[in-house]
Amino acid sequence: MAMQRWFTDAKLGIFVHWGVYAVDGVQESWSFYDDVVPYDRYMSQLDRFTAARYDPRDWARLFARAGAKYAVLTSRHHDGVALWDTAHGDLNVGRGLIGGYAEALREQGLKVGLYYSHSDWSHPDYASTRKPGRPPELEDNRYSEAAAGHEDPAAWERYLAYRDGQLRELTGRYRPDLMWFDGEWERSEEQWRIPELAALIRSEVPDVVFNARMLGEGDYATPEQGAPVVPPDGPWELCLTINDSWGHQHHDHHHKSVDQLIRYFTETIGGGGNLLLSVGPREDGTITPEQRERLEGLGDWIARHAEAVYGTGRGLPPGHHYGPSTLSSDRRTLYLTLFDAPRAEINVRGLRSGVRRVTVLGRGTELAHEVTGGLHDTPGILWIRPPAAADLDPHATVLAVELEGELELYRGAGRF
What is the DSSP string of 266-303? Predict the structure, then answer.
């Protein structure tokens, strides 16, 4: 199925990790799985999860101001706790929190994404490869058998019916534009019955986008936290936290700066990807001032440089320009990102296309440029006079290089 154009044009999404784990500020699901927090204590957060100040319209306005075009909310993590009033399974927050989220996003023109874990470490019919809260040496045979690919057939059928029932609710009620799956590593594509699951979801939302953790049905790659040095071919998305945690953790004050987030963002879109930036609301539904400030700072920068963001594709390969770049959809304008104040001319190598003019994006100031060198098929180097200090952006400056035709690059080694 062809990738939806909206996704590749979006550039920025917001990943919302919100659940009962925000009450005590512990790690989502993994805190009990890894025996950091006893299972019963983890689940005691369910009764203390209030969502008392949850305002999805405030979220949606913030996400739109950040420059995002979609968001993804954790409808159910590996802990099995659903954020909607599901009729399937015994664990949910006792009310519907997803409907308002979906409606608010659409009011702002944002696409609706829902995260759902294939795995459920609380469900009685789900044999995890490790039973939560139980030392490995005391695990019973059904868990080791699950790890080896053997299931209790009746239990597994009940689990799949529960999963399918929940996904019918999510897709039928909220019509998500994107389903972001996780927890796939404990089973094979065959065990999960991925083709049948994809058909079920598409029967409700035919144009839905899947991430790669939908295994053989995924539409795009999903690197996590570590920015790829060599960007994947095809559509992809880097999912990244603002601090060091996905969900809200009281002790985590190690937030990335706006400068760092702009660098992550420009390098990601320059490599043809989207940035999915995670926020962790408090249990009451409010987003911390530190995370709001960074979303607003990133959004302000994007708003000043929107021409170099939306409607563009991946830019120059490494070796042509010292920094990320994007290319307009008509392939006639290159946008070069400069993170530092240049001390000398900016150069671009291997550019066969002629240059009409170079301007500072957002300022309109035209910069002098010339080409030196070149022999036979090997083009010369484009040199651009550096912008004046007054024309530099406080975070990152973008130059628009207007070409005389479509971009054509030389990728050879020169004449020997």
Answer: HHHHHTTEEEEEEE---TTSPPPHHHHHHHHHHHHHHH
Output 339 or 414, whichever has higher pLDDT: 339
Predicted confidence (pLDDT) per residue in 16-48, tens digit: 999 999 999 999 999 999 999 999 999 999 999
Reference 97, options 74, 118, 120; nearest CA is 74
Average pLDDT over residues 104-121: 98
Q: Would you state the structure tokens that stand for residue 245, as one six-digit string?
A: 């945690």
User: What amino acid is encoded at 326 in this protein?
Assistant: T
**3-class DSSP state for residue 3?**
coil
Question: CB-hemisphere CA count at 13 Å for 128?
Answer: 23
Helix 194-204, helix 153-174: angle, nearest 10: 20
Choose among 198, 200, 227, 193: nearest CA to 211. Answer: 198
Instruction: Give the β-pairing of 397-403 and 111-117.
Output: unpaired
Nearest to 277 by CA among 243, 302, 307: 243
Q: Are strands 397-403 and 355-360 parallel, antiparallel or unpaired?
A: antiparallel
pTM of the complete model: 0.93
Predicted pLDDT of residue 1: 46
Q: How far apart are CA 375 and CA 51, in angstroms?
A: 67
What values do phi and psi take at 54, rounded to 5? -65, 120
| Rounded Cα gap, residues 17 and 50, in angstroms | 16
